[in-house]
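Case study B.
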Amino acid sequence: MKTSASLEHDYLSTVEREASALPADRRQELLADLAEHIEVTRAERPDAAIGEILAELGDPRTIAATALAETDNGTAGTPARSGAGAPARRGKVHPLIPLLLLTLSLPFIMVFPGEPGPLFGLLFRVTGAILLCTSVHWAAVQKTTGVLLAAVLPSAVIATANLSGGGPAAGTPALLANLATLALMAGTAAWLWRVRRA
Amino acid sequence: MEPGDSTKQARAAAQLRKGVLEYCVLALMRDRPRYGVELLHALEDSGALATSQGTVYPLLSRLRRDDLVTTTWQESASGPPRRYYALTDSGRAALDEFTRVWPGFRNAVDAFLTTPHPSTGDLA
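Model:
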């Protein structure tokens, strides 16, 4: 015949073992809560057998499973609490970011026509296009129009200018072409900004 | 989770309980702070919400972490001090919100269960 103390100890040890995937502080808290419950119940019902009290508490595995399920929606095993209630904001880039990247890619090339300039300009434009396409702020048609007008067409114009030998910094006609392209990109960005979804 | 034969039968009740239990626990604290064993007795007396007692403590722990309840120790005339749970302002707000949406929810479910062909109009 086991003593009350050893029955309680065995029970809490089983909970501790079953809850081993819980963060340590969470596990200790659970054990303290259960120990407190047993102590209070014994004080309130002196005649109740410890076995009865433990049976009412329930299966240690069920308790441990519930505790795991309550731990940040099932991400058990993480050692620290991860900011309770902070909603994940994945994929929610501010709508201004792709528009700025797209529009500024051209002035960037115009200001820095030397070697890193065009490369960064291209990176801006590609990143902007990707962010635009993955954004939640526009419908598919708007995205396609935006990418065509603000990324593909300007890229084609710039590539043509480069191939025809002028380069982005070759005199007044090139500057005019650049400004026209810039106006097109800025106009497209302004339109996208106006039609965006909140 | 270990779905045994008995839990299979009780699945509907368990699913429902999972959704509403925390609000019922919050409701029990509406008028005054309560300690753990006291909360468990009240749930047990309700019948439908009775659950394996030990599983309520992880729930209380989460409510505390989510700042819906606070706890204080109070001495007792009999036995050890008790840890009392009380609603915070956000706990009260969560309870009020649940109280507001529950009747519509309950009526919608009732309508589905009692009407053979529920109207396709909006149920909101």
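The radius of gyration of chain A is 32 Å. The remaining cases will be described in the next quarterly update.
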